[in-house]
Specification:
heterodimer; A: alpha/beta; 10 strands; B: alpha/beta; Rossmann fold
Chain lengths: 266, 292
């Protein structure tokens, strides 16, 4: 199977505004320190790491919300590392993102229908009402939700709107950044089951960022573990859980509280 | 003898639906009780009612909150505030919004001690320093002078824990204190809360939606649905065999990394329907009592 994404020696540095002198530029911190990996078409890849490990920065580089400072990103054969926005725009339809907090990523003044239609308009697609209806269907929301506002929905329903927005464009690739960490366990399970179904029904490729290894284990065939801007493990998920190779992965695993009072933990 | 004893507490949205339905629970000194449930189940509402910080749109319609034997709801507002302020504390969810970004750490810990409890500045400062050491923050002097943005999320949460224990409270409400943190930091913070709570013999109400966390931190738990306690159990008994179908479903929804096929099952519709019917039956019975 061919790779949808090909990442070579990816580096990314951001300005550290907390250390900026009054005059002159802020010092730059290297967040990603040379990452290389590929994402096969149709794969579901988990990206895990603690806070500050660079997992969200990597995600944002993949969908080119950030421009890398070194290395290269190839998307379906095209080098998108430094493409200018005008050239990138038509490609953007093909890689979409679902955000962590739907309450802050959805405009509270717009109705759900408008929210889903907005990206479609931006990309000048036709038959927008049909596409919106189809997207709502796919995420299991009734059609009359199109007239509701985000604050009228529960957390799980809002996250479904976030998913509908992304899949309405019929992308090849979706990046999901911590999309279930704000939800309670039951809604978490519903959203994950939905995502699993959409991946197989629509033939999506998915990168799923999370700090929760138990969620990753359920959803992803392959897992990248990031620590301080480097990949410390990149293996099939089952292998990684059976025998974590790096000490950092073991720390992450042991830190998860199992719902079992007899497990020695604290 | 329990320190906090809530009896049949009912709370509703003013002129609207009930939010808590005759909630009863007990927490003894040195005990930890977990409050679990989905979002909107009313678990944070209980903590807010105890601390007297319910939003203005919400009113208590019945019941008692006994703190050390005194019913808080029976006290005049001024006495109630004084009593809560002297004996209770909160560990909030999000350390970044709970700390004032434009003040240094020191006054954020000491102001309450000086202004409300009448300590001297010097005594409050010494206490703050000791506490920061107790929560294992390196270089407390530097931390006292720092602004919140200069510290990491885990450090900020440690400061709030130190601050909660500052006046030796008898009761602490921890409202999802680790949901904003990643797993490795969560573990350190939970360890710290347990250690501090055990050392100081504090009664702790621990609000969370993570049953994994409950199994590690609490001795008792109350499972809530729609503001109703559907199960009140000892932690060991609950995880061995939950009694209520809804709490069993909640446990089944909790992911387990050791078993990829178990967990992450949404609560089945049939279970939701059954527990909703229980809530409806409760409301109907209450309406009948009201009419009689």
């Amino acid at each position: 199977m061919s790779d949808l994404y090909r990442i070579e020696n990816l580096r990314l540095a951001l300005a550290d505004m907390t250390a900026k002198p009054l005059f002159g530029p802020a010092p730059r911190i290297e967040i990603l320190k040379g990452l290389s990996f590929g994402i096969a078409k149709g794969a579901v890849v988990g990206i895990v790491g603690g806070s500050g490990s660079g997992k969200s920065t990597l995600g944002r580089a993949l969908v080119r919300l950030l421009e890398p400072s070194g290395g290269s990103i190839h998307f379906d054969g095209t080098d998108i590392t430094h493409l200018p926005e005008a050239v990138l725009r038509p490609l953007r339809r093909r890689f979409q993102m679902i955000f962590q907090d739907p309450m802050s990523s959805l405009n509270p003044r717009h109705r759900v229908g408008t929210l889903i239609a907005e990206p479609l308009r931006l990309h000048r697609l036709d038959a927008i009402p049909d596409r919106v209806a189809r997207a709502l269907d796919h995420v299991g929301l009734p059609q009359n939700f199109a007239t509701r506002f985000p604050h009228e929905l529960s957390g799980g329903q809002r996250q479904r709107v976030g998913i509908a927005r992304a899949i309405a464009l019929e992308p090849d690739f979706i990046l999901a950044d911590e999309i279930v960490s704000g939800l309670d366990v039951s809604s978490q399970a519903q959203v994950l089951n939905l995502l699993e179904r959409l991946v197989s029904d629509l033939g999506l490729t998915l990168a799923f960022i999370s700090h929760d290894l138990s969620v990753i284990r359920r959803l992803c065939q392959r897992t990248l573990v990031l620590h301080q801007g480097r990949i410390v493990e990149d293996r099939p998920t089952a292998e990684l859980f059976a025998a974590p190779a790096s000490a950092y992965t073991r720390d992450l695993l042991e830190a998860i509280p199992l719902p079992d009072p007899s497990q020695p933990w604290l | 003898m329990s320190y906090l004893s809530i009896r049949n507490l009912s709370v509703r949205l003013k002129g609207g639906p009930p939010l808590l339905r005759r909630v009863s629970l007990d927490v003894g000194p040195g005990e930890v009780r977990g409050l679990v449930g989905e979002s909107g189940a009313g678990k944070s509402m209980i903590g807010k009612a105890v601390l007297g910080i319910l939003p203005p749109s919400v009113e208590v319609t019945g019941g008692e909150i006994l703190l050390g034997g005194t019913d808080l709801l029976g006290l005049p507002p001024k006495d109630r505030r004084r009593r809560i302020g002297a004996t209770c504390a909160l560990i909030p969810q999000d350390p970044l919004t709970a700390l004032n970004p434009s003040h240094r750490i020191e006054p954020q810990i000491t102001d309450r001690l000086v202004n409300i409890l009448g300590w001297t500045r010097a005594a409050a400062r010494a206490r703050a320093r000791d506490l920061l050491e107790e929560v294992h923050l390196p270089d407390p002097e530097r931390v006292l002078r720092a602004y919140p943005h200069e510290l990491s999320g885990g450090m900020r949460q440690r400061i709030l824990i130190a601050s909660a224990f500052a006046a030796e409270p008898k009761l602490i409400v921890a409202d999802e204190p680790t949901t904003a943190l990643d797993v490795t930091v969560q573990k350190q913070i939970l360890k710290l809360i347990r250690e501090m709570q055990a050392r100081h013999g504090t009664a702790l109400v621990f609000v969370t939606h993570d049953l994994g966390v409950v199994s590690k931190v609490c001795q008792h738990l109350s499972v809530l649905y729609a503001g109703m306690v559907v199960e009140d159990a000892r932690v060991a008994d609950f995880f061995a065999a939950p009694r209520h179908a809804y709490s069993a479903a909640l446990l089944a929804a909790t992911p387990k990394y050791t078993d990829p096929d178990a967990g992450l099952n949404p609560v089945p519709d049939a279970v939701i329907d059954a527990v909703r019917a229980e809530v409806a039956a409760f409301d109907a019975a209450k309406a009948r009592r009201g009419a009689a």
